[in-house]
Design a protein that fits this description.
Chain lengths: ~550, ~210
């Protein structure tokens, strides 16, 4: 009964229970809400998963290595594995939401590690923090999630203002990616990349010029390789030219506008330029017309190099482009064909009715005329006596034997004459040859006997002198002493205090007085001749 | 065998949860309060099953972020690193600190997980009126009751590290969001095991008999 009673009393409590149950279930509901919110957030924030391939995974760690853009973490490496053929490393990374618009085939990934390169050290902070993956996002291009990672960081990122240009060069020289580009010795850009040209015959160098310097690049701008030190030894002396210390180590490119040129239009992005080998070639005028002549030398061309100048009247008109040694089997002799490039535009034409005469098809006719009638000849000449460099001199020799203009391998062959230096050499040789004919030994022998004879004569002369000294000299001395005595006596006799002179003086006085008396007498006789008879009347009158 | 053991219920007594005074049912019929201390009286723990279920569910939900999210952010000399509980265990295991790895694994992963499983098992066994090894099931309950608090070790370690390792740029440790969820799991499972009434295991058997 009691049991029943309690159960009855417990019954209303059960009703109460149902209401209270819902309250305790709030706890899991709250947990569910939080968990759901976390899950939603995780799914909502989940970004794309991408795969990047690298050559090696040095410094990369799954779950730790971050992907950063402008030092903001935009992702994390989840997994590192090898590709099936073990040739590369496949890095799977999770990126943050929102970056998927920037994942295109133009997007670049690279590993940022500490690097020392040419003039710069980068990524030093990664020594402590470990490497991270850099990203250069790109909106243009087709979206993708598989990327090939770069081995080196790109020099120029997409957002950087400036312009890309291409340079065509024969060789790369000491240029490298990141090599500086100078304008008036201020760094304004960098070499971004390089590769072979389409046919593999030249090198295509991609460069990037930062804004606002990119405006300095115009259609007439000339680029030259400013790598290393440019040492020039010539008649003006030693000249050392360099852009900066960095360019000595890592190479560099410089550009400028040639002095006599107008800037022209600003170059378009991606424009192509020729890369000149040095600054001097930039300053040279660009000549588009080039004529090739062949010079055949049958002498040594030692000192002549490719690039040596060809001068006419001392003015440069071209350069040597090729040197060879040929053996003429039929004529059994050696020949040195020297190919020269003549730039006719270097010659200004005046008083001409046909301006194209020199520059175009008629030039060969003109050359023929010059060679056959005017005696145009080429000769080797010393360019620099110090270094022994040679050059080609073109000159007119009207008196030289007439020659016809011939052709060889389509090139007109300009006859050669031996150069002035060569002639000098030949003359010198001749003199030496003549000198050799002189019988120096015989002359020497004769000279020797002559000398012996002379010695004998001298000895005799010596003997004679001795005799004079011993016999004649004392006698002469005595004679001289006596002569001196005589002279002294003579002086005493006729001296001022001598009686002779006194007497002589007195006699002279006497004589003077006598003469005065005579003159007086003569005067008197002149005035009064009668006095001679009558005596001196005047005296009486007086 | 109807009354194999004399229980309070059989004796029409209700044990007070506060002062453990066995109050006779007849006495408390109107008030439901302990005649000695005045606490509310319940024959069994109040809504034990549903409460425990609710708390177990909450704990299960929190158990996921507690293990998925990072529990610590470590930054030392430029290196930023976030660790979950598992990655911490793996780290200690790989660096040779097997003891530490074992302690963290047992205290932070195994015990909470085992606790939840055992609670779920006990709840379902009661709801399905299971008579299977009631002694063992009680023993399991004793185990989770006694060992549950040790899961807090991880939280203590994290809080201690956060407080101690504050060397600026050299090394800094910060607590991650998982610490909160993990603490919630530990607390909720402790509450769940508290709200569970092991007498229910035996009640089923007695009712069946």
């Amino acid at each position: 009964m009691e049991n029943h009673q309690i159960e009855e009393q417990a019954a209303p409590a059960k009703i109460q229970e149902k209401r209270v149950i819902s309250i305790i279930w709030i706890v899991p509901l709250v947990a569910l809400a939080i968990g759901g919110w976390l899950a939603f957030k995780a799914i909502h924030e989940k970004g794309p998963t991408i795969t990047i391939t690298f050559v090696n995974a040095e410094g990369l760690e799954a779950g730790k290595t971050k992907i950063r853009y402008r030092n903001v973490t935009v992702g994390q490496v989840e997994k590192i594995s090898l590709t099936k053929d073990l040739s590369k490393v496949k890095v799977t990374a999770k990126l943050v939401r929102g970056i998927e618009h920037y994942l295109t085939d133009k997007t670049k990934f690279w590993v940022v590690r500490a690097r020392v390169r040419g003039g710069s050290v980068s990524g030093l902070n990664t020594i402590l923090s470990g490497a991270y993956i850099g990203i250069d996002p790109s909106e243009v291009g087709s979206p993708t999630t598989v990327f090939a990672g770069l081995e080196a960081p790109p020099v120029v990122t997409l957002g950087q203002p400036g312009r890309h240009f291409a340079l065509i060069a024969d060789t790369l020289g000491s240029l490298d990616i990141g090599a500086p580009i100078y304008y008036r010795q201020i760094q304004v850009g960098q070499v971004v990349g390089y590769g072979f040209g389409k046919d593999g015959k030249d090198v295509n160098i991609q460069i990037f010029i930062d804004a606002p310097y990119d405006r300095q690049v115009t259609n007439n701008t000339r680029f030259w390789n400013a790598s290393g030190i440019d040492v020039n030894l010539n008649a003006q002396g030693l000249k050392v030219n360099t852009q900066s210390l960095v360019s000595i180590i890592s190479g560099g490119v410089a550009f400028e506008l040639p002095k006599d040129m107008l800037p022209g239009k600003a170059a378009k992005d991606g424009a192509t330029f020729h890369l000149y080998p040095d600054h001097a070639s930039v300053q040279e005028k660009e000549y588009t017309i080039r004529k090739r002549w062949l010079l055949l030398f049958n002498r040594s061309v030692k000192g002549l190099t490719v690039g040596a100048p060809v001068e006419l009247y001392g003015i440069r008109v071209g350069k040597v482009t090729d040197l060879n040694l040929e053996y003429d089997d039929s004529a059994k002799h050696f020949l040195v064909p020297v190919l020269v490039t003549i730039e006719p535009e270097r010659v200004r034409i005046v008083n001409s009715t046909d301006t194209g005469a020199v520059q175009h098809d008629k030039s060969n006719e003109l050359l023929k005329q010059m060679v056959e009638n005017k005696g145009l000849r080429a000769q080797l000449q010393s360019d620099n006596l110090l270094t022994g460099q040679m050059m080609i001199n073109l000159a007119f020799f009207p008196d030289s034997p007439k020659m016809k203009l011939s052709y060889m391998d389509k090139y007109p062959v300009v006859p050669t004459v031996s150069g002035s230096f060569e002639q000098l050499q030949q003359n010198l040789g001749k003199i030496i040859e003549d000198l050799k004919k002189v019988p120096f030994s015989k002359i020497g022998y004769d000279l020797h006997s002559v000398l012996a004879e002379a010695q004998k004569t001298l000895k005799n002369f010596n003997k004679l002198t001795g005799e004079i000294n011993n016999n004649i000299a004392p006698q002469a001395y005595r004679t001289l002493a006596e002569l001196q005595k005589t002279l002294m006596d003579l002086q005493r006799i006729i001296g001022q205090d001598s009686s002779l002179s006194y007497n002589a003086g007195k006699s002279l006085d006497e004589l003077t007085r006598t003469l005065e008396a005579v003159r007086e007498l003569v005067d008197t006789i002149n005035n009064r001749p009668q006095s001679l008879i009558f005596g001196k009347e005047g005296q009486a009158h007086e | 065998m109807n009354h194999r053991f004399l229980t309070a219920r059989n004796a029409d007594l209700i044990g007070c949860h506060q002062c453990f005074f066995p109050a006779p049912k007849t006495h408390i019929a109107c008030t439901y309060r302990c005649p000695r201390c005045g606490a509310r009286l319940h024959q069994r723990k109040y809504k034990s099953i549903s409460r425990t279920w609710a708390l177990v569910c909450a704990a299960v939900i929190f158990y996921i972020p507690a293990n998925v999210l990072p529990i610590t952010y470590t930054s030392s000399i430029g290196t930023q690193q976030s660790d979950t509980i598992i990655s911490g265990v793996i780290y200690f295991f790989q660096t040779g600190s097997w003891g530490v790895a074992a302690v963290i694994f047992i205290a932070s992963i195994f015990i909470p997980f085992a606790k939840l499983l055992i609670l779920i098992f006990l709840l379902t066994s009661i709801q399905f009126h299971s008579v299977w090894h009631p002694k063992d099931r009680t023993r399991l309950y004793r185990l989770i009751e006694s060992v549950g608090r040790w899961s807090m070790v991880d939280i203590f370690v994290v809080t201690t590290l956060v407080a101690l390792v504050r060397l600026g740029a050299v090394a800094t440790i910060q607590a991650g969001p998982a610490a909160v969820y993990f603490a919630a799991v530990v607390v909720i499972t402790m509450l769940a095991s508290k709200s569970f009434d092991p007498r229910l295991i035996w009640d089923v058997i007695e009712e069946d008999e």
